[in-house]
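> @MW can you paste both from yesterday?
MW: sure, first one:
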Amino acid sequence: MSLLSTTYGLLLVITVGLSALTPLRLRGLLLTLLSLLFYAWGSLPHAALIVLLGSLVFLIGERLHKTRSPALFASGVLLCVAVLCGFKYSVFFLQTVAGLWPAKDTATKLSQYAQSLLLTLQIPLGISFFTFEFVHYLTDIYQGKITRPHPLPALGKRLFDFFLFALFFPTLLAGPIKRYQQFSPSEAPLSARKEELAEGLWRILIGLMKKVLIADSLATITLRLKAPELVTPPGLWLAMYAYAAQIYADFSGYSDVAIGVSLLLGYRIPENFRSPYAARSLQDFWRRWHISLSSWIRDYLFIPLGGSHVPPARAMVNLLFVMALCGLWHGAAGHFVVWGLWHGAGLGIEQLARRLRGPKEGNHGKLFALLGWLWTFHFVCVGWILFAAPSLKAALTALGRMLWLVR
C-alpha cells in the first residue's frame, strides 16, 4: 500500500478523526485496533502471522523480565530471524545454492523450485521492520534496558501497549525503526495541541512534496540505470546524480509523512534523516542517513562484535560483515550485498586513516572539509549505482561505461 493511495488517505482521515474524539487514556487501544485493521486490510493471513509472532515475542519478553535466561533469549531472537529468512531470503538462498551446486541436475531442480517459490511466496508487509523491532525488544529486556513500569499494569494492558509499538501504522510502510523506549506506548499520547497539529501537517506536506515533486519527477531519468548498455556515459552520470536525489527525496519523504501522521495521533517518533548529503565522512553519512537502521546495526550487531575497540583487521571484517547484512536487509540479491560491502570497505578505510592520523583535534580548514564532502558524496553516489541497478552485471556495466572503460 502506498501513502498516496486512497486507502491510506481514507484510513488516515478516519484514524485522526476518531483519535481526536477518543479520551487520552483509551487512544492507545484505539490506535492498536486500527493499526491491526490497516495491516489486515492488505493480507489477513499475514496479519494473523504477525499477531502470532508478536504474541510469542511478548510472552518471551515477559519471561525474560523474570529469568534473563540466555537460552530463552536466543530462542526468541532465532525465531524472529527464522521467520524473516523464510519469507524474504529463502528464494535467494536456493538460487545461490543452485549456482554453486556441482551436480547439474540437482542445481537445475533447485533453480526451478526457487523460481516456483518466487511466484507463489508473498512477503508480509514490513517483515524486516517487525524483525528488527522484535529483536531490539528482546535484547533490551535481556540487558535490563527495558524494565517493567511500577505499578505494573494488567497483562492485557501490557499486551496492547506492545502491539501499539509493533503495529503503529504510520511506520509500517517504510519505518523509522522504533525503539520501545523512544515510543513509550505505556504513556498517554500527547494532547492535541496546536503546535503538534501544525508541525504534523507541515511534515506531511513536506514529505508529499519530496515524493511527488522530486522523487517521482526524477524517475524517468534514473530508469537509465536499469539498462546502462543503451545509455551514453554522460547520461549515466546524470542518472547517478538523479538517483541520489530521488532515493533521498523518496525515502525521507516517507519518513516525513510517518512523523507527521504520528504527531497528528499524539506520538513523536524518532527522526530518520538529517541532511545526509552534507556529511564530510562516511561515518558521518551513516549518522545522518536512515538513522533508525544505522543505529540499530551499530547497537545490535557492530558493538556486540567488538565495535572499533578491536585490532584493525578484525574491525575491518566486522564492518564488512555488518554492512553486507545491511545490504541484504535492503534486498535479497547479490548487488545489494555488494553495495553493503562497498560501504563497509569505505568505512574501514576511513577508520584506518583515523588510526594512522592519530587523535588530532581541531579544525583542519575549509579545503579539508571540502575534500571530505567530495569524497563522501561521490562514494555514496557510486554506491547508489549498485543499489539501483537490476543486477551486479548491470551495475558493473554502468560503471564501466561511465569511466569509458567499456563500450
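MW: second:
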Amino acid sequence: MPSAADLRREFGERLQEGVSLARFTSSRVGGPADFLIEVRGVEALRSTAVRLWAMGAAFRVLGGGSNVLVADGGVREVVVLNQARRVTFDDAASRPSVSAESGASFGSLARRAAERGLSGLEWAATIPGSVGGAVVGNAGAHGGDVARALESAEILQPPDRLEEWPVERLEYGYRTSWLKRHPGQAVVLSARFPLTAADPEVVRARVEANVEQRQATQPAGASWGSMFKNPAGDFAGRLIEAAGLKGARVGQAEISRRHANFFLNLGGATAADVAGLLTLARRKVRETAGVDLELEIELIGDWPPDVREALR
C-alpha cells in the first residue's frame, strides 16, 4: 500500500482523509475511510482505478452503500465513491435498451424505464443499490435478477484493459458472480439492459404492485437489505422468525418485527451491534433448524479476526 504522502501527491485535493462512511451507506453505520476519492463519471472512475492499480494501492468502489456492513474501525483501503450516474435510453431502436453508468441507482433506473413504457426491469424498482453493485452481486427481487436481465457490462481490469463482457462471462450464481468471487480484480464501469416496448400504464402498474408488496412486507428505516441468503428450499427470514428472534436487539440494532431477514439501525447502532445480531441469528438458526445461514451482505473494513471467522 502506498503511503499517505504518495496518495496526496498523486491525487491532490481530490483525496479526502478520515471520512466517515456512515453517511454513504443505507444503514447509516460505518467507521472512517482512511482515504476517499469521489468520482463523477466513468472516465474519472477508469482513470482513478488505473492510477491506484499502478501505485499498488488496495481500493474498493462504493456505490449506493446497501448490502455492506462497514466496520467501526473503518477501512484501510482507498474508498472510491462512485457517483458516475449517467443513464442513456435507446428506445427508438427496434430493440430498445438502456445503458447506465455503474454509480446510477438501479431502482431509479427501473422506474425511469417504466415511465417510458419500457418493460424488463419492473422487478428492480425496489432495489436500493447502484447498478454496479447489482451487477457484482446479481441483485434480485420479485422473481427477477440481473443474471436474467443483463445483456453486457463494461469491465475494467488492470493495468488498463477495458472489455465488454456478455452476461455469460460473468458466471452468475445466486447472489454471486465472477466479479464478487474475485474482489479487486475488476471494476464495473457501466451495464446494458435490453428492454421491450409495452403499454406504459401496464408497466407502471407492475412497478407499483412491486412497491406496494415491498412496503407491506419489508420495514422502513435505515437497513442493509436482506442480511442472509435464502438457503435452498427455504427462506432466511422464516428461519430467523422460527428461532424466536423477531424484535431481538443488540445495542441500537434490531431484527425487524416485520421481516426477520432485515435488521434495523434504530439510531446510533454500531457495526459491532449488528455483528452481534448476525452471530446470534446464525447460532439460533443452527440450533433450531440445523441450517448454517450464509451472509448476503458484505463485511468491509478493519474487522477483528474472531468476528470475521464467526460470520464466515
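> thanks! The mean pLDDT is 96.
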